[in-house]
Specification:
The protein has about 375 residues and is of the alpha/beta class. The chain contains seven helices and 18 strands. Helix 4 (about 220-230) runs parallel beside helix 5.
Amino acid sequence: MTNPLLKHFNDPFDNESGLPVPNREINTSRVKRHTGVITSLEKLTHDTFELTVTYDGIGFVEAQAGQYGILEVEGIDKPRAYSFAKAPCLENPNEVTFFIRLVPGGEMSNWLVQPNRVGQKVIVGGPMGKFRLDKSDKTIVCIAGGSGMSAINAIVEQAASRKLERDCFFFYGARAQEDLYLLAEMEAIAAQWHPDYKFTFVPVLSEEPDHTDWHGARGLVTQYFKENFLDTNKIDITNMKAFFCGPPAMIDHGALILKAAGLDEDDIGYDKFEDARSPAPVINNSKCTVCDECLLVKPVANCIVESSMFSYRETGITSLQRVSPGQTSGAYYNTLVINSDECIRCYACIDACPHDAISPTNDLIQKTLRVSAV
Ligand SMILES: Cc1cc2nc3c(=O)[nH]c(=O)nc-3n(C[C@H](O)[C@H](O)[C@H](O)COP(=O)(O)OP(=O)(O)OC[C@H]3O[C@@H](n4cnc5c(N)ncnc54)[C@H](O)[C@@H]3O)c2cc1C
Ligand code: SF4
Ligand code: SF4
């Protein structure tokens, strides 16, 4: 819902000065926007779909396994982030694949999985994110849940096709057998893995009824991994890299377990599926050096704006004057503000900031040198 106090973020004219506000489109070399069409849509489970987009081929930038794209479609005002679900080396030319989980009441996911979507135009922004395979020879430990299969599938496909000389354990969390998919593909990856190393896929079900034919692992995927592989030293904590993908709660729990066991934060990588329920990040302007890195990756035009002045109450920002070159004084004012109404929670700006100035846990009252409390 739009916050009426922040309405002026999106107005073409500044609400206080009446000056025109520059239309800062996505003017960056880091986030390319590719037009394409949906060329196939297939059901993977009762609520998860494989969607393929074919680009028109112009300016195509190949992603790395683990990265994500920003999908825009006509009629939905905000784009959403979706991870690339196949290793780029295995995609058809100019094609990208996504795994989309249908979120009850979710605007974009419901739009995407309608049967008549094949042939519809979409725009894919990206590639985004720093989540990808590292170059070490440490054991790869992947933990994914739900449609978090996407980025991890891309990563293990890439590792298998490059015949990496590393062991790999992939723990996949789902509710029940009906939520499992890509089982045959995981067997194919195991067969394709470097012959001197091992790929182990472990599906873990949290809500499978007792009296079924399921004889595999049960419980919460992160807890199962801890009790059966970490605590029993089947995986050596001193020689592993963790790759998480999926729901934020699963990733936070997994990271907590690994840190408590002594794994360095640098050895934990993740692709968190933040969504509309996640908090928008906040910029701490006393740390910000106005290096522009966040502005270069932002996937929507007005999620981060340059302001020359703003006021706040405890409830948040009450008025804001946007920078208008040649109109407001000075070019830059050391005051960047995130508009939580425009933000799609992709957290790309957090990844991009070299000064650790952006975080969803920063105070909601923006820290700046030019702010007045009213
Ligand atoms: C980096 C990144 C990568 C992502 N990759 C993928 C991917 O590969 N596949 C994928 O399916 N999704 C992925 N997501 C999530 C995706 O961006 C959307 O948030 C998701 O599809 C919901 O969008 P929506 O428009 O359908 O729901 P919205 O219209 O945004 O939300 C509608 C309602 O549903 C609630 N809601 C939103 N998400 C969920 C949820 N997961 N469960 C329960 N309720 C929810 C909201 O609070 C809201 O009330 C990724 C997110 C990020 C940040
Ligand atoms: S998380 Fe950052 S980059 Fe992503 S939409 Fe929000 S403000 Fe923009
Ligand atoms: S990336 Fe960080 S330091 Fe650079 S402009 Fe954005 S908030 Fe400021």
